[in-house]
Amino acid sequence: MARFVRAFGLHQPDRTPCGTPVPVSEAHALGELAREGELRQVELVHRLRLEKSTTSRIVAQLVRRGWAERAAAPGDGRGVLLRLTAEGRLAAERLAEARRVRFDTALERVPTGEREAILHALAVLTKAVGE
Predict the structure, then answer these.
(1) What is the distance between the alpha carbons of residues 84 and 37, in angstroms, rounded to a whole number?
(2) What pTM value is reported for the model?
(3) Which of 33, 47, 73, 97 matches a 20 to 30 Å C-alpha distance to 113?
C-alpha cells in the first residue's frame, strides 16, 4: 500500500496526484463544490472528513485564489454558504480533466482482463477504510 501511495503521488500534499500544483485538500474541496454547485461550509467539513478549522483554512485559500465565495446561509445567521466563482469552476474542470487522464492512463496499463477486478478491489478497499 505504501508503494502505491508513493507511486501515485498521494504523499505530496502540495500537489494533486495528476501533478497539478494545487494542494490535495483544495482539489477535493473544489470537486465537492463543483459537484453540488453550493454547499454549507459545515457540509464541506463532513464531506472532506476534516476538522472545522482545517476546512476554514482551505475555504479561505479558495477565496484568496478567487475560486470560491462565501455568503450567509439562508435561515442561519451563523451558517456559511460556499459556491465556486467562474474562475473556480474553470479550475475544477481542469483538475477533473487532469484526474481523468491520469486515472485512464493508469487503468490502460492494467491488462484488460484484470481491470474489473482492480476496480472492484478499489471499491471494497474504499468501503473498508471508510467504516
Answers:
(1) 7
(2) 0.84
(3) 97
CA atoms of 64 and 79, how far apart (whole Å): 20
What is the phi/psi pair of residue 45, to 5°? Answer: -55, -50
Residue where the block lists cell 485538500: 25
* pLDDT tens figures, 47-96: 999 999 999 999 999 999 999 999 998 887 788 999 999 999 999 999 99
Question: How many domains in the chain?
Answer: 1
Domain region containing 102? 2-130
Output the domain CATH number for residue 47.
Answer: 1.10.10.10
Contact 59, 109 (CB under 8 A): no
